[in-house]
Automatic annotation (TrEMBL):
Residues 202-236 form the C4-type zinc ribbon domain. It comes from the Bacteria. This is Uncharacterized protein. Residues 14-192 form the CT398-like coiled coil hairpin domain. Residues 22-58, 138-158 are annotated as: Disordered. Residues 39-50, 146-158 have a biased composition (Basic and acidic residues). InterPro entries: CT398_CC_hairpin, Oxidative_Scav/Glycosyltrans, Zf-RING_7. It comes from Halopolyspora algeriensis.
């Protein structure tokens, strides 16, 4: 393939732009904020799970408190009824039975009140845990939002840089013949880089030093001949810096 040496030199500028576009895409995929977001999301979910667990425990204890309170009230109501019956009088047997029932109810109420106190203390402790869990969720939300904000800012900067480089690329490709551009793009897609400066006997893409025969071919090739590396296939652009 033939191409004007000046046009071939434009490939070096195009290659620089493409290399920068590759770096931009690499940075986009490897932004440290992406890992931070992943960790923050995992931490947020763990904190939310902990909150749900604490809230469930609190709700269960709250229901137990209400149940015990209801039982205590039932026992008290029955004690009140028995006292009223005793005050109204009756046979000795009835009075004895009522007194016995009152003693039983008193023991029952005492046991229920002890249970109620213990459950209320547990509920209070769990309520404190719920508060801490809510604060932890809020902090995790803030951490995630901060990482997402910094990611968005970084991506915005990359978008700006990419748009600038894409505009430069569009300007360069207009000056390169279609057949040469097609060859360059095909090599770039296969190898990651389509062209490089030939310098000090080395390919500018794979950096492999040419053997004597290949070096002689490059030296003797006409200036407008498109020379390719035998190792990586990239276009080797010759300039005054090539040392030929």
């Amino acid at each position: 393939m033939k191409a004007d040496p000046a046009v071939q030199r434009r490939l070096l500028e195009l290659a620089d732009v493409d290399a920068e576009l590759n770096r931009i895409n690499h940075r986009r995929r490897t932004l440290p904020e992406l890992e931070e977001i992943g960790q923050a999301e995992r931490d947020q979910q763990a904190k939310r799970d902990s909150l749900v667990s604490s809230q469930t425990s609190f709700d269960d204890l709250d229901q137990e408190v209400k149940r015990l309170e209801a039982e205590v009230e039932q026992v008290r109501a029955r004690e009140e009824r028995d006292r009223t019956l005793m005050e109204s009088g009756g046979s000795a047997k009835q009075m004895e039975d009522l007194q016995h029932e009152l003693e039983t109810l008193s023991r029952r109420r005492g046991a229920l009140e002890d249970d109620l106190l213990e459950v209320m203390e547990r509920r209070e402790a769990t309520e404190t845990e719920v508060g801490y869990a809510r604060e932890a969720v809020s902090a995790a939300d803030t951490t995630l939002e901060d990482a997402q904000r910094r990611r968005d800012e970084a991506q915005k900067d990359l978008d700006t840089a990419e748009a600038k480089r894409q505009a430069e690329r569009a300007s360069f490709v207009q000056e390169i013949p279609e057949n040469l551009l097609t060859l360059y793009d095909r090599i770039r897609q296969q190898r990651g880089a389509g062209a490089g400066l030939f310098q000090a006997g080395r390919c500018g893409v794979c950096r492999i030093e040419l053997d004597r025969a290949a070096l002689t071919h490059v030296r003797e090739a006409p200036a407008d001949e498109v020379v390719r590396c035998e190792e990586c296939g990239a276009i080797m652009v010759r300039t005054k810096e090539s040392g030929l």
